[in-house]
Amino acid sequence: MVIKADVKKVFNWGRYPVVEARVFESDFIKDYQELLPLESGLIPRGNGRSYGDASLSKCILSSLKMDKLLSFDQEEGVLEAQSGVLLSKIISFILPKGYFLPVTPGTQWVTLGGAVAADVHGKNHHKEGSFGRHVLSIKLMRGNGELVNCSREENEELFFQTIGGMGLTGFMLSVKFRLKKVETAYIKEQRIKAANLEEIFTLFEQSADYTYSVAWIDCLQKGLGLGRSILMRGEHAKQNELPAKYRENPLKIPRKQVFRLPFYLPGFVLNNFTARIFNALYYGKQRKQAVKCITPLNTFFYPLDVMKDWNRCYGKSGFVQYQFVLPKAKSYEGMRRALDILRQRHLGSFLAVLKLFGKGSREFPYSFPMEGYTLALDIKYSPRIRETISLLDQLVEEFEGRLYLAKDALSKASLLPSIQNDQKFTSFQFERLQNGDTDTGRDL
């Protein structure tokens, strides 16, 4: 008997766009194999923590019931798990054993399959690359129901296409990957204020030897203050570096109360004026030019996870996150122009994040990172932002950059060949929804 679908409104973390979809969910591989010949337009989907229209289609294969840890080699630090397991569950299992994720995005509420499909990056890309670099093998169900094992030694081309392939090569069943050995659940963190864009670029270059680095950036300043920022850099703390109160249980993360936003904020609350106030307070709360501290892993890597449903801050219309990367030699001028576009159009971002990428992997043709600087912007959705996104798209194309498909919501499909390694998704088994009204999906 073929599994039945739940028909529901589906959206990602940005809450824009919204589509009506038939969602199929099972923990039996055979159920999906029987379903594939009967449905078209299928796309695999995890926990919906991407921002734009990724994994939105008329028919969705949910991986959330496939959430089991399959094997763990503690000596080698290798874990295999089903694709629907959340990173939070993996961390809860591996951290007490002295391991952490080799690469982590800014939330632990993403699935393992989603992390591979988007080839997620973290604060350590300049040192340790993206998630795909640490993947050893993938078990994949193709569009015809065939089960395929792929790795660097077996079905190599398919392996490389799947990492960063946005779920378009098939349905990931399980992933085996290598972990990072750690002594504690804490980070030695330094926070350094930068007066402008030139200063923050200099600080990033001076921090090249640090494992982790990231900056919050104020998008609404101009003149000498354009791009004022706070750089956060860090290393995994060793046990002898912890305060005495943490040394008894060095691999235990202190519990933090999790808050839930019970309602959507009215649309008028977040605007250019309140963004300026927020930015001034955030930049000003650090009185010293530089501070050092010991920070729990959760606070350093997942500061927003402390508030569930924080996306409701943007109101019922939702928001878009726009992330791009520019080649290193062109990054300073490109970022300066991007900030000018945002300021002139009064589109301040409450959460604007700047990172330095190392060299991208030539193995993965559809992976987002390339050597250079990347900027991620959260912008409340309204119809007027479409023109701004178009201007940013033109800038990215002019400067030979790339867009992050895991966060794209409004950019045009015609832009893809020039911002994604000059290649197209041509031979994949799954189709994306094509909707001219919402720009949902891509004709790939």
Structural features, described:
The protein is of the alpha+beta class and 444 residues long. It is built from twelve helices and 21 strands. It has an eight-stranded antiparallel sheet. The protein has a five-stranded antiparallel sheet with strand order 5-6-10-8-9. A hairpin with a 6-residue loop joins strand 1 and strand 2. Helix 10 runs antiparallel to helix 11. The C terminus is likely disordered.
Distance between the termini: 32 Å
Q: How are the strands of the largest sheet arranged?
A: 16-12-14-13-19-20-18-21
**Major beta sheet summary:** 8 strands, antiparallel
Helix-and-strand structural type: alpha+beta
Overall geometry: globular
Tally of individual helices: 12
Average pLDDT: 90
Unreliable residue stretches: 421-444
Brief synopsis:
The chain has 444 residues and is of the alpha+beta class. The protein is built from twelve helices and 21 strands.
Which features would summarize this protein structure in a list?
single chain, 444 residues, alpha+beta, five-stranded antiparallel β-sheet, 22% helix, disordered C terminus
Write the layout of secondary structure elements.
Blueprint: E1 6-11, E2 18-25, H1 29-35, E3 42-45, E4 59-62, E5 69-73, E6 78-82, H2 87-94, E7 99-100, H3 112-117, H4 125-128, E8 135-141, E9 147-151, H5 156-162, E10 171-178, E11 180-181, E12 186-194, H6 197-206, E13 212-217, E14 229-236, H7 244-247, E15 259-260, H8 272-284, E16 290-296, H9 297-301, E17 307-308, E18 319-327, H10 328-344, E19 352-357, E20 372-380, H11 385-398, E21 402-403, H12 416-419
Parallel strand pairs: 2-4, 3-4, 15-17
Antiparallel strand pairs: 1-2, 5-6, 6-10, 7-11, 8-9, 8-10, 12-14, 12-16, 13-14, 13-19, 18-20, 18-21, 19-20
